[in-house]
């Protein structure tokens, strides 16, 4: 049946999205020249971590084997305006993410065999994953921008960091956009929604 194929495909895409970068955030400023930082100080948001988004730029004057750690670099920048280190955010979510993904995947697969009352609830957690990420990501950005420390070298008013698009903080231009992992996660949700609708129709026809 088509709904079974869509359900299994949705779970496979869900698993893929776990390992893919979901969102990227970048800071650009004159003291980070484009020759060395073509994408600015860039980090990638994953389901279970914040990772380096900078790439190694070969230069004749400098012999480097690894790219700059832009998570650490962004922490240094944030320190000057009193923002907490990146690793302070979403600790519980990062720790729980692997277990939640396994649980949501198994729940969705259980819907292949269970057709009793409220069977569709097994698919709801997997369907809602992309929405959950955006809500949680936005909430943590708000927390970082509204919980500034008093010892900052530069005083800025509490602010909402850029979730999507371009913004400005002090002398830094900020950029935040979806990475391909969000597309994979949305595709997973759409597959699960279609599987739910088709199965519901089959159950009604069978009744």
What are the SSEs and their pairings?
Elements: H1 2-19, E1 23-28, E2 41-45, E3 50-52, H2 70-80, H3 91-110, H4 124-127, H5 129-146, E4 165-169, E5 172-178, H6 180-206
Antiparallel strand pairs: 1-2, 1-5, 2-3, 4-5
Please give a quick description of this structure.
This protein has 207 residues and is an alpha+beta fold.
Structural commentary:
By secondary structure, the chain is α+β, with helices and mostly antiparallel strands. It has one domain. It has helices at 2-19, 70-80, 91-110, 124-127, 129-146, 180-206, and strands at 23-28, 41-45, 50-52, 165-169, 172-178. Helix 1 (2-19) runs antiparallel to helix 3 (91-110) and helix 1 (2-19) runs antiparallel to helix 6.
Q: Termini, distance in Å?
A: 17 Å
What proportion strand? Answer: 5-15%
Indicate the low-confidence ranges by residue numbers.
none
User: Could you give the count of β-strands?
Assistant: 5
Helix/strand order, N-terminal first: HEEEHHHHEEH
Outline type: elongated
Main pleated-sheet profile: 5 strands, antiparallel
Structural class of the helices, strands and pairings? alpha+beta
